[in-house]
């Protein structure tokens, strides 16, 4: 297996990718929730969005904590979206949970890379 050299530019690129992805996905989730409204039966799922969105805010300062909160929120969203999805359960899992899992993993990778960087 090839060894990847851990460097500050690599960590910065991953951090930037995680932040931009979080901003875009949070904005799209917010607009979707705004369009659906508060009387929709899917309101509990939209309330679960508070967890990964809050985790995204935490991850801007503390990548490890924020990434973990985002991933926990992604699992909760996937579980919450699984039961009312009807026949489209797999699509619901991928649309609701997987993007936040990827974003949380990116923040955790960035946190791990910055911890592994040699002290300068």
Automatic annotation (TrEMBL):
The protein's UniProt keywords, in alphabetical order, are: Membrane, Transmembrane, Transmembrane helix
Any transmembrane segments, and where?
A: 20-38, 58-78, 90-114
Q: This chain belongs to which protein, by name?
A: Uncharacterized protein
List the source organism.
candidate division TA06 bacterium SM23_40
